[in-house]
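INTERNAL AUDIT FORM
Audit reference: QA-55
Scope: verify that the stored structure record matches its stored sequence.
Auditor: D.O.
Record contents follow.
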Amino acid sequence: MNYFGLSEFYRPVPELDHWIRRRVRMCYLKQWCRMKTRIRKLIRLGVSTKLAIYIGLSSKGYYRLAKTKAVQIGLNNNWLKAQGLVSVKEQWVKFHYPNG
């Protein structure tokens, strides 16, 4: 936030926030390298069995899979926040509008 907080220009901040979230989702998928692990973890996070199997068996790249509906349902913003991910967008708003 030290670099982007100084900017008065808000437009790139949400795009940067989306990119960071997608990249973090990709890293979680990469950690779950085996297809059984991917399926099991996604089901545990609330994704339907059919969608979890679809993601687990997919041969697409991790970054592309991070954009799919199933991954965004399982690894949603609230879950990422609970894991400790700080939103750049929220920090920018807090920096520029401390009272509101």
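Auditor finding: record pair retrieved intact. Helices lie at 12-31, 35-44, 49-57, 62-65, 69-74, 77-82, 88-96.
Action required: none
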